[in-house]
Design brief:
Elements (H helix, E strand, L loop, with lengths): L4 H18 L7 H8 L3 H7 L3 H24 L5 H18 L2 H6 L2 H6 L1 H28 L8 H21 L10 H12 L1 H7 L1
Helix pairs in contact: 1-2, 1-4, 2-3, 4-5, 4-8, 5-8, 5-10, 8-9
Length: 202
Amino acid sequence: MRKSGEERREEIVQAVIELAACDSGGPLSTQAIADRVGIAQPTVFRHFSTREKILQAVIEWIARHLLGLVGSIAAGSGSAAERLQHLVARQLEFISRHRGLPRLLFSERLHQDSSMLKASVGKVMDSWTRTVAGLIAEGREDGSMRAELDAEETARLVLAMIQGLVMRWSISDFEFDLPGQAQAIWRLLEPALSPDSVQRGR
């Protein structure tokens, strides 16, 4: 059965992510993408007229799936602190299943190729930060986090902690269990966020 255009574009996006996990940071050729999908190179351009549009589709895929995951957890049940802990764990699981994501998002190829692509990545990070900042603001209200926390600043620091871990995992060629690090991150975050730690310090 012939695949629809939407199905074929999804395959191309997945091929880019998979190839990014395997390569050393060089440019992703459309021939390599075509070979991965099992189609002729001209077929790639039938669905995406330029390489920039392929990468834009990848970023949109990341935004749709990662931000959807983060948003659903943030809107879930439990205290804000419990939801943040769950969010960190699930995000690491998501990234571990798509190893090419950090190599794409933080690659020179993406940042140098197009200011539009760089801006798109920035929008994904800003959206993530807003969602987590909202969760931290909830935590101040429900008493599961310290009342004096700056929600946006704290969200940016949580993002930086996750990014640092993910980059170390990527640079090491995925040699350690990324989801297994969720507890280590929370052991650092919990004392910084919990109102109980303030009480103990007095």
